[in-house]
Specification:
Helix content: 55-70%
Shape: globular
Number of strands: 14
Largest sheet: 5 strands, antiparallel
Strand content: 5-15%
Number of helices: 18
Oligomer: single chain
Strand order of the largest sheet: 4-3-2-1-8
CATH architecture of one domain: Up-down Bundle
């Protein structure tokens, strides 16, 4: 039974009851469900292939590629803060989604312009030798061309480069000491197009990501009992798109061509856009601009405000094009933004609201810190764990490394209903876990996932490849951790934040996710191995490096989880579930005390 058959069974088993439930909800949810499913299809199709495209097509080093992946994903989570603000104040969510989708389709279309792969050359003395590269994934082969013949190569125990079975009459020694040769890369002629494609995708996600979720909320009244189940169904659509994109785009990218994997991701986004546009009547007027007359105002020349937003959005692609190539600037931006936003929030908490609301917001910020640690570990999936699947995992049943990205989404499709039942059952018994305790367990589980993978290192074969069951088990534990945290995260922010700063706190949540992506890239860099033409020179050393880093972050995640578990007994009361505060965050007792002090 191959992975596609398993995927079809999972989809049929889990999807039938979902489609049955959709009929009980506003018809607009059906449109948003499929639009978001295809948007996630495009994002996760891109995510599964990106680090391989960097290391195998452009032949960038591990260190650069994983940092580049982090810069890309950091900006993907950062720009929705701006896109959400523009939609709320001017465009409205529907127009922002359409504009963002068009940028995404253009970006994916450019990603499909593959071009010729880069070439790796070995310079020794006055002679230059080219590495012959063929295939992808498990079929990828790299050999050194010497005197018209191809030879395998690898690293000696001392780290020198050994060319195997090279005749003694060759123009090149069979062992090249470190420093005696130079490796260069030629033919990255399409790299500027690649970065422009990334910039278009980042800007597109910025206008789209947070805004579809906003329309979902607008379909229901505040006290509609279908509201939470509606978001659950929407969450299913997200993961269904992620699941199938990893299977299909991952297979095409590795077996047919990078252009095919990226191109299919773009077609998925185009299909989502068509569904969204045709389904406009079913949205019942939701998502429209808050003040349409403001958009029509002429502000500079004959061009109105709406078109200036589009023009500036396209010009902003150029700014993102520069940023995505400069990882250190992205890091500084995140650091300055975090300090600025937290500074404002602490000023607000200690000067503008009462003790009860202040403790609620402090609890929310502490949980955001826990979430940052979790996502830093969890998001190793698209970078270090992806490369680990390629280099040091014994892949079976024709599964490609990129397709292992489907494990997380597949487990969510299977387990989300079970977790939903468990939380509902515990709630009915008044034994539901507190938010801090759920976040603590999420950290412990993500740590256990890495340690499970480290344990699998004991069963590696002679080629230094760990059985695939251990990689799947790690993703299973990580997914369980995600289900402890992700469904309650956004709800927590809206419930614990003062009304005046809800949007700012939502921005903090996305900022934390963006910061986690950047920190995750720094950790992924620690797993970097020396490669030649995208192939690891020392598979044994590569495995040891991965396991060492995974063990370190696994222990740290569990330790931080235990710390949060310990303090949860003290800070859970800060939620003040029974307290009644006014819109300014003051209880009745605090208002009386303030009035008495003024008198």
């Amino acid at each position: 039974m191959n992975l596609f058959t398993v995927g079809l069974i999972i989809t049929l088993v889990t999807g039938a009851p979902v489609l049955w439930q959709l009929r009980k909800h506003p018809k607009g949810l059906f449109i948003l469900f499929f639009a978001e499913m295809w948007e996630r299809f495009s994002y996760y199709g891109m995510r599964g292939l990106l680090v391989f495209y960097l290391t195998q097509h452009f032949l960038f080093s591990d260190d650069y590629s994983q940092g580049q992946y982090a810069a890309y994903t950091s900006l993907v989570y950062l720009l929705p803060v701006i896109g959400g603000f523009i939609a709320d104040r001017f465009l409205g969510t529907r127009k922002a989604i359409v504009f963002g989708s068009l940028l995404l389709v253009a970006g994916h279309g450019m990603m499909a312009i593959e071009g010729a792969p880069a070439k790796q050359l070995l310079q020794y003395g006055d002679s230059s030798y080219e590495f012959a590269i063929s295939g992808r994934s498990a079929n990828r082969q790299v050999r050194l061309m010497v005197d018209g013949a191809e030879y395998e190569f690898g690293a000696t125990e001392t780290g020198d480069l050994e060319i195997k079975d090279l005749p003694v009459t060759s123009t090149l020694p069979s062992v090249l000491a470190k420093g005696s040769y130079e490796l260069t890369v030629e033919g990255r002629d399409k790299v500027d197009i690649f970065f422009l494609a990334l910039a278009l995708i980042i800007m597109g996600v910025g206008f789209l990501k947070a805004n579809i979720s906003s329309i979902v909320g607008q379909l229901y009244t505040e006290h509609d009992p279908r509201r939470d189940p509606g978001f659950t169904l929407y969450y299913y659509g997200i993961n269904l798109g992620a699941f199938w994109s990893a299977l299909l785009c991952g297979w095409l990218g590795m077996n047919v061509g990078w252009w095919a994997g990226f191109g299919l991701a773009g077609l998925g986004m185009l299909l989502g856009l068509v569904v969204f546009i045709l389904g406009k009547p079913l949205l019942e007027g939701h998502g429209e601009p808050p003040k349409p007359e403001v958009l029509k105002e002429k502000i500079i020349g004959p061009i109105n405000r709406e078109w200036w937003i589009y023009i500036l959005g396209i010009l902003g692609v150029g700014v993102v094009w520069l940023l995505v190539q400069r990882q250190e600037i992205v890091g500084w931006m995140l650091a300055i933004g975090t300090i600025g936003v937290l500074g404002y929030l602490f000023w607000f908490m200690f000067t503008q609201i009462g003790k009860v609301q202040r403790e609620r917001m402090l609890l929310a910020l502490i949980m955001v810190a826990a979430a940052t640690v979790f996502w830093t570990m969890f998001e190793q999936a698209g970078s270090s764990m992806n490369l680990f699947a390629q280099r040091n995992t014994e892949l079976l049943y024709g599964v490609t490394a990129a397709q292992t990205q489907s494990f997380n989404a597949g487990f969510i499709l299977l387990m989300a209903p079970l977790f939903s039942f468990i939380w509902a059952w515990l709630g009915s018994k008044d034994k539901d876990l507190s938010i801090p305790m759920k976040f603590a367990w999420s950290l412990i589980l993500v740590g256990l996932g890495f340690l499970f993978l480290v344990w699998g290192g004991n069963f590696a074969n002679d080629a230094y490849r760990v059985p695939m069951i251990f990689l799947a088990g790690a993703y299973l534990l990580h997914t369980m951790g995600e289900l402890f945290m992700s469904p309650v995260g956004l709800s927590m922010i809206t419930r614990l934040s003062a009304a005046a700063v809800v949007s700012t706190m939502m921005a903090v949540w996305f900022l934390a996710s963006s910061f986690a992506q950047y920190l995750g890239g720094m950790i992924a860099k620690m797993t970097s191995s020396e490669t030649v033409a995208g192939q690891v020179l020392d598979p044994k050393g590569s495995l040891e490096t991965y396991l060492e880093v995974f063990q370190m972050i696994g222990i740290w995640a569990i330790g931080i989880g235990i710390f949060f578990m310990a303090i949860s007994f003290f800070i859970k009361k800060w939620s003040h579930d029974e307290a009644d505060v006014n819109v300014d965050g003051f209880t009745k007792e605090e208002l009386k005390a303030k009035a008495a002090s003024k008198a």
